[in-house]
Batch of 3 targets.
Target 1
Amino acid sequence: MAVENPPPGYAGVTAYIAVKDADAAIDWYRHVLGAELAYRMDWQGKVGHAELKIGGGWLMLSDEFEGVNAAPPTLGGTTAGLMVYVPDADATYAKALAAGATERRAPVTEPWGDRKGDFIDPFGHRWS
């Protein structure tokens, strides 16, 4: 089988995150960010790998597996952030907060023209 790097439709950088409850995370990202589940593989009774299409980009995720990966609550927080462009930053921000996200910074119009806010999703990941 020939390997294509990157696979068709993927960009050079794709975020891959670990979460404590991947089923809930997938549902949350679908509801709040309009993500589309493109692929899911279960492993050892958990989500071993999932691929979500969000805003023209990709997010890969899995449940936390001891000795393999760790979610932000296990690590004591996250050091990285995820940025996604959405049609209405204010509406998406409000939807995220209503769905359990923690507010970091309400949306503002940045000097470079983006409308941008920051929140922490219920799984410990920071989004802009």
Target 2
Amino acid sequence: MNNIAIIGAGPSGATAAIIASENAANQITLFDKSSPLQTLLCTGGGRCNLSYAEFDSRELAKFYPRGEKFLLSVFSQFSVEDTVEFFKNLGIETYIQADNRIFPESNKASDIRDALLKALNKPNIKTEKISISDVEYSNNKFHLTEQNGKTMEFDSLVISTGGRGEGHKLAKKLSHTITPLKPALCSLVIKETALKELSGITLKNIKADVYFGGKKQFTQSGDFLFTHFGVSGPLVYKISSYAAFLDYSEITPLTIKLNLVNKAEDEFDKILTSEFLNNGKKSLLNVISEYIPKKLAKEILGTINEDCEKKVSEVNKVSRKKIVSAICCFELNAIKTHQGGEVVTAGGVDLNELNPKTLESKIIKNLFFCGEILNIDGLTGGFNLQNCWSSGFVAGNSLKNRV
């Protein structure tokens, strides 16, 4: 018999328990300070965006700013297709949205949770609403200590406490390295406080070039949202993820240059030239508002000292070029992440200390890690849950086949 402890009853820990329990010789205790899978209920806006419909594992791994190479082995064992099949076997039918995100047909995260809880209801799985405060490893056994001081002994241990749980302290105690932790997939606070007047304005599928220290770092695209504190939306979440370990601040901000119309400057200049010629009596604000939201157009024209009510027939070439540049290269400066707004954490257990084929520690035998505790984080769109399902399967399957 293999007596297994799993600390953390989130998506990855629950999956590991379900898979490991397929071997009746495994006796599993699933520990969590809260109810199992509670965190699932708010995912995907309550609908549970459980994965993303990219069925080529190599392409899928490219959506992870950290962990791409490591995940190739993980996804080869449990892919997006396997995830869909896994949930189908649990009674959950899924569908693919137009943007490739995968959801349960019911659009209820609670249905995903209920199906997993039902799968956890086995004779060889026990769930305990207990917080583990300490762990020791001696004589090939793991000794777990509850907050009340009670100690329990196990043959194998899985730590799956998520990106912000107590698991990192336990991992350190077991001689593992924790790479620095930073917020990712979060909103950003910008230096341009006057732009809070634009709060609520959304721009669809625009492009951003991101600079730091005067050097271009990367380019990303997506939907963009102005807020009362700064900027948010899928594009900003991508930026925050790829910039997670850049030390930007008010003194050295992260410069974001937005192309508000997704057109090269010379192309947009030709379009405006034609518009100005054909609609000479229209005001500058009305013409520009055909391409970007009116409130934003007014802000931009004010910034470059252009009269919104000026007739476009009166706009000279120099002014037109200035307007084109302001729209195709609208600059913002991010000074910090929005506190408390992070969705996932970048950083975690050092992947070099794990076997990617089993997720077992290279330092301590029979010690496994899975889920967001790892130094793996994906973009928004179901990628982080896919990491949980896949890594949970790999850890659980390793234990299933060990006895």
Target 3
Amino acid sequence: MKVTAEELPKREILLNIEMDQDELDPYLDRAFRRAAQQLNIPGFRKGKAPRAVVEPYVGRETLMDDALEILMPEALEKAVAQESLDQGGIPHVEIVTKDPVVFKATVPLMPKVALDAYRDIRHLRESVEVSEEQIKETLEHLRWELAPWEPADRPVALEDRVTLDVRAVVDGREVTNQKGVAYMARADNPNPVVGFAQELVDLAQGQSKEFSIAFPEDYEDAGLVGKDCSFSVAVHEVKEKKLPDLDDEFAKGVGQGFDTLEALREDIRSGIFTQEEEAARRRYEDAVIEQLASRTTVELSDLIVEHEVDHLLHDEQESLQRQQVGMEQYLQTVGKNPEEHRAEAREAVLKRLNRGYALRQLAELESLTASTDEILEDKKTLLEAAGP
């Protein structure tokens, strides 16, 4: 195998690799054996037909392509080792000729990272305090969650749960017609469209109403933006929350139970403090890492960047598919074309890579390592966060 190396800009090496026939033959033989195992050739048991029979059966070109598919990764690995390259990503490979076998590979090297005066970084960590307002908000939330829904002998008010029939028409076409729908009449409820809940206010049980609402600019279905939707509703039932008094009896029914309201308040205070402390720690770490990244220069291959961009967009597309949303539909909704979307993804990837390589370089310069126990604890935390 003949290998020549050429240095390219942006931490890349171009390898030109040429194989002689003696080196190619074992791969052709492996390709033939793989093909023979997959073919049913009359007169021969599966996998027992000789190469002289198999090769004309599948074609010399196909056999050569299969051989190259096996050969190139192995030959490239040997070439990288032979040239002692510090490979940093997936190479781009291109076949030059098949006879003789010549191919070239652009190999991304590990990025070159420089940190500037990172030991001068200073950032104060914010102190954490829990306010009475936070405790009060949590208590009110608990009152709401634990309170039962009871029939309300009055017209609809915001925060009620309403059972109603609803029919909607857009451009003369019926888009929904549902009976006995349970609906939360909250001011910020975006379903079916913002403003719908407010139209129900003051309607009594048994009353009906017709009204129109225009779909807002940020509506998820871009084809409906700006159009009027005509609604017909009929109210069947109105229910409200009967909030309990905030006393010791209430505290005994929360979670595992607390002897007094003050004990519940103290538990709430402790829980909020823990959450705020963790949030403050994350903000502190993010700020320090951001300062570190701002003092970091990273020279890296475009191949590494584009591979990460492809990976990010692939994950995003799979996530959208799980929500039964196509990428084209999503881009229409956010008002971007594919080029703009990829450019944004590339910017995000560059920021993430810059931060990651900065931390890696810092760990190397300061000889920082993680113990086995720390690694196992981090894995446990990640698994718990991922859920069942």
